[in-house]
# Entry
Amino acid sequence: MNTNSRIWHLVVILAIFSAPLLIMYVFQVMDSFTERRPDSLWPGELDLSNWRFLWEKIDSGRPSIWVVTFNTFVFATTTAVAVTSLSTMAGYALSRLNMPGRPYFLGGLIMLHAFPTITLIIAIFIILQFLGLFDSLLGIIFVKAALELPFGIWIMKGFYDTVPWEIEMAGVQDGASRVRVWWELVLPQVKPGLAALLIISFLSGWSEFVLPLVLAPGSSTQVLATYMNAVIQDDATADFGLFKAIGMFYSIPVIVIYLLFQKQLMNIYGGGTKG
Amino acid sequence: MELKLNKFTKRFGDTTVIKDMDLTVASGEMLALLGPSGCGKSTTLFAICGIHKMSGGTLHFGERDVTTVPAQQRSVGVVFQNYALYPHMTVEQNIGFPLKVQKLSKSVIKAEVARLAELVQIGDLLNRRPAQLSGGQQQRVALARAMIRKPDVLLLDEPLANLDAKLRLEMRSEIRRIQRETGITAILVTHDQVEAMSMCDRIALMKEGKIVQLDKPENMYANPGTQFVAGFLGNPPISFLPATAGETLSLGGNQTLARPSTLDAQGDIVIGIRPEHFGPQHGTGLEGEVIFVEPQGREDLIDVRLDNGGAICAILPSGEPVKLGQRVNWGVASERILAFANDGSRL
# Structure
């Protein structure tokens, strides 16, 4: 048996297991653009009414999709920027500065990363309530950023670890301060990591569901994930065509980002600079 | 500018790496810190440039006490073993970076970069990035960057270690030329005795955190202070043989050598014979069997096992009809024999 046919076996097995997903995606696209016929598996005529949420409110009690999208965008962007900038500094400190308790910090990071954060949700709820940030975008931005930070710091530390010490020593010898060395000489070496972390934490914010659902349930702070949840839950008769269309709309930015930034995203597993 | 280390001590935690080291490098001199790995030579270098804090002692550049001055404010240029060029900058930006930090105007920086590029002969590479340069070119860039501030002292940390053999020869003379042309005080850290001997005015040979001998290369070679120094310098290395000093030097197994006239020791000693002082051109005296012949082009290295069991190395012009397994009876230039006591000190 040669390798080629063995790979074929694998491909067949993988195809069988991923077929349900693929079929569902196909139907999602198809159903969102067509009229649903209850008596048949195959869709009917082309029909854009499922996409009506784009130009009208789907019912009076709900905010416009554009407000929700804006909320989601603000939420994802702010957490991504906060996580990336804080991780960039913290990762450097953990990689380079000889501070007391550094090993415990590193151990703590891994633990926090592995910790099922959802178990903290009640405590976080009380804290937000206490701070007056409950049911506000700012509140969930803080929480999301805090929960993403261990991962971000760990990734950035890994990238800094690959930057040769000599580059920093040379910078110091050339008369530059530590801050300037970091900003002007080291940071450019970890740019791939920065880009990847920014994208990943944006995507993570974009798809966040539980935090906004529990900590910002009001309609003014709705994000796309909770909006979709509301659409499918509240209606007496669930409109799956509408739900699928919103789902499509929700995943477009994700698909676009993956298409545009594949290379940067792969980097996070490679790490470091070449030459 | 003269550099003076006084009672320099360096500890890492509880381990003392260097204790009470004194070293003076004259203005315009090039000095080699030579020694095996772990002898403290790089530690010394990093203390001079300010990357390591000194645990004790003082450091002066000329009259200026720089013991506690941070690295940024010491006027030291460093060339690192892997050159440590900034990968995201062009050659021009790399060389100009120290001046950019000093906030000099763009035109001044450009002129200075051009001057240095001329000195190290890389004028046509200014727009390239380090990844597009060969090892030798990267080295030149690193040298230019280290020199552009006109530092008081230039430090070179194993600058030739990453180059191939041919480039190493070329850069050896290049570095020396640049150092001579600029008259800068320089310290070269290396574990390669050939580099140290060929490039430097003086060599400080270090072992276990101490300078065991500080001398001109030719003196250190001809007149080593200890057995360690004699063994460290010279390639192929010197051969050591145990001997008993009496009327003659007795090597055991009926092999004897004439005493050097300057030797006045008696009893058990160790003698060192350099390869060029053993061979047929020095008459006869030591009998043995050729156990290894290593042709090197211009010369052949020949290992001889003496009949008493000792081994000794000779270097002969190539073409000598010496074969593996051949019996030889070759002489030694007895006045050039180096004698050491059993504790390694020179007699």
